[in-house]
Write a structure and sequence with these properties.
The chain is elongated. It is built from 10 helices and 16 strands. The longest helix is centred in the first third of the chain and has 20 residues. Helix 1 packs across helix 4 and helix 2 runs antiparallel to helix 4. Strand 4 and strand 5 form a beta hairpin. The protein has a 6-stranded mixed sheet. It has a 4-stranded antiparallel sheet with strand order 10-11-9-12, covered by helices on one side. Strands 4-5-16 form a 3-stranded antiparallel sheet. With about 425 residues, the chain is an alpha/beta fold. The chain folds into 2 domains: about 280 residues, Aminopeptidase, CATH 3.40.630.10; about 130 residues, 2-Layer Sandwich (Alpha-Beta Plaits).
Length: about 425
């Protein structure tokens, strides 16, 4: 039975690559969330061909869901002889903006030298396609399962996943009441199992000044200048202290086994990119991305920022700062002795002839919603592609890795859903 299933995966190699390339050619860029419906329907049509009952689930009530950019998720279910156990395969189909530096068409789905190129190839349309063909290989091999397979293509993971997996969890479509295991084929290398991730704290600092004429700046307070001491304090006080933190979680790469802080954006003044105005900037905003460790915890992490701003403000009575929390995600980690982890490990050893490495991700992914909203403890990320390719120019995913990961997922589905 295993050999038949592996044969069907290999036989579908070209079909798998072609489908992943088809998904790449739909530029589902987030923000703003382009062509979500078209991509969901492309996935849904293929799921129908593979014998699934398919639903399109829009994120009604979410602020991201608009008439111009509807948030449309697709979910397919293929029942076995009984409803449970149920394994859910989830992949997001939104991609980040292209950026500069490409030498190939980012939405061309180019196949060259054993690689599939394009924005979203590694992160993570190749993984979603591999998961779908893993389950399909079982059907083509004529194997009837005792349990149920469910597949979802979801939106907005790159901006937090609140209209995607979080919404499916909130309405009970992904839930511990019906779902036993979840595999998310994020690009973390085909011989690794990702057990979880660090925490994230996105926050905004606003510096407040006083508007004045640009020819007499001494009569105003420049908020952009007031942001400078905050940035300097982050560079000279906070960032060096983070270098001394460490976690027992197996975060990869090793440099991410400490707390980190990135300045994501700075916006200030009145002109922006439009028309110049002769004014002293009365406001400036900086957005920060703080990745924190389970050993640090969120409360301590936030208090560091509060204290830093207080210290900088006390140095000059003109300085006024405001802190806004944008998003908080707590660290999560699936135990290594979880049945899903053990099954994937055996499958990787069978397909690749080596034991997998257990890691945790430096960034968050939709595991956070599966664990905290859906209440499902058995969730991992496993799929093709290298994490270092995510969001890069000339992003690519290896075709052999796509096929191997599909074989691994197929064997894992067989083990978890076969008759006891």
């Amino acid at each position: 039975m295993m050999d038949r299933v592996l044969h069907e995966v290999e036989a579908a190699r070209d079909e798998l690559v072609d489908f992943a390339a088809e998904l790449i050619r739909i530029p589902t860029v987030n923000p703003p969330g382009d062509l979500y419906r078209e991509c969901a329907e492309t996935i849904g049509q293929r799921l129908v061909e593979f014998g699934y009952d398919v639903d399109y689930v829009t994120a009604e009530g979410r602020p991201e869901h608009t008439a111009k950019h509807p948030r449309v998720n697709v979910v397919g279910i293929r029942p076995g002889r009984q409803p449970r156990p149920l394994v859910h395969l989830n992949g997001h189909f939104d991609v980040v903006p292209v950026g500069a530096g490409w030498t190939v068409d980012p939405f061309g789905g180019l196949v060259r030298d054993g690689r599939l190129y394009g924005r979203g190839s590694a992160d993570m349309k190749a993984g979603l396609a591999a998961a779908m063909y893993a389950a399909e290989a079982i059907r083509r091999a004529g194997v009837e399962l005792a349990g149920t397979i469910e597949v979802s293509g979801t939106v907005d993971e790159e901006s937090g996943g609140f209209a995607g997996v979080a919404h499916l969890a909130e309405i009970g479509r992904i839930s511990s009441d019906r779902t036993d295991h979840v595999i998310i084929p994020e690009p973390l290398d085909v011989d690794r199992i990702c057990l979880g991730h660090r925490g994230v704290y996105w926050f905004k600092v606003t510096s407040h000044g006083r508007i004045g004429h640009g020819s007499m700046p001494f009569l105003g307070v420049n908020a952009i200048e007031q942001m400078g001491p905050v940035l300097e304090a982050v560079r000279t006080r906070l960032s060096p202290s983070l270098a001394d933190t460490s976690t027992a979680m197996p975060v990869a790469p090793p440099a991410a086994r400490r707390g980190t802080l990135n300045i994501n954006a700075i916006v200030g003044g009145q002109a922006g990119e439009a028309t110049q105005t002769p004014c002293v900037a009365d406001h400036c905003e900086a957005i920060f991305d703080r990745r924190f460790l389970v050993e640090e915890g969120f409360e301590t992490t936030r208090e560091q920022i509060v204290q830093l701003l207080d210290e900088v403000a006390r140095e000059d009575p003109k300085r006024r700062y405001e802190l806004d929390d944008l998003m908080v995600v707590h660290p999560t980690l699936t135990p290594e002795d979880d049945p899903l982890v053990r099954s994937l490990s055996r499958s990787i050893e069978h397909v690749l002839d080596r034991a997998p490495e257990m890691i945790a991700s430096p960034g968050t992914y939709d595991h956070k919603h599966v664990a905290r909203i859906a209440g499902i403890p058995s969730c991992v990320a496993y799929g093709p592609g290298q994490l270092e390719q995510a969001h890069q120019p000339d992003e690519w995913c290896g075709i052999d890795d796509m096929v191997d990961s599909a074989k691994v997922m197929a064997l894992t589905l067989l083990e978890l859903l076969a008759e006891p």
